[in-house]
Amino acid sequence: MDGRILAASHDGAYVIRMTGDVRLTLCTTIDEYFQKMFADPGFTSVWVDLCEAEGIDSTTLGLLAKLAIKVQDKYGFQPAIFSCEPGINRLLKSMGFQRLFDLREESCASPENIHEIPQVTGSEDSVKDKVIEAHRVLMGLSEENQARFKDLIVALERG
After folding, report:
1. Is the pTM of this model over 0.70?
2. Are residues 46 and 13 in the same domain?
3. How many domains are contained in the chain?
């Protein structure tokens, strides 16, 4: 199933639900939604719900890591990720997400007003910049991630 991003907010509390196979084709949509969320002067919290996600690529993981770092820096707390899928839970931990997020291996409450975010298509250069930035964030989390993504970054920066 193709990936989709759904979101809801109420009084500055945001829930972002990723469903299906979430790939870099959604990176502009995700990044723009995060920017909109941070522009909300009433922002108080964010939960990421991955219970209906079938797969998440490294670009999406990098964007989530960027989200957590910004929330910690600007608001002083860790956002929560809810994930029911053991494979995704292992992936999150292998990337070092337990240091960035409050990882909860359970489903989260479903807000009534959750809706799909319209997909935003970025230019090829814009998407490439987001992919590079996302992987640089992941590389900053651990030496394992540095080794994992070093060659990809070199290839993207050459191309």
Report:
1. yes
2. yes
3. 2
CA–CA separation, 120 vs 117, rounded Å? 9
Are residue 111 and residue 140 in the same domain, yes or no?
no
Are residue 39 and residue 57 in the same domain, yes or no? yes
Task: Give per-residue pLDDT as tens, 64-102.
Answer: 999 999 999 999 999 999 999 999 999 999 999 999 999
Question: What confidence tens digit (pLDDT) does each residue in 19-53 have?
Answer: 999 999 999 999 999 999 999 999 999 999 999 99
For every residue of 80-145, DSSP letters joined together read EEE---HHHHHHHHHTTGGGTSEEESS-----TT-EEPPP-PPPHHHHHHHHHHHHHHHHTT-HHH
Shared domain for 78 and 125, answered yes or no, is no
| Residues 55 and 125 reside in one and the same domain | no
Model confidence band, residue 115 (pLDDT cutoffs 50, 70, 90): very high
Q: Which domain holds residue 71?
A: 4-115
Quick check: 68 and 78 in contact, CB under 8 A?
yes
Q: Both ends of the chain: CA-CA distance in Å?
A: 30
- Quote helix, strand, coil % in the chain, to nearest 5: 50, 20, 30
DSSP state letter for 39: T
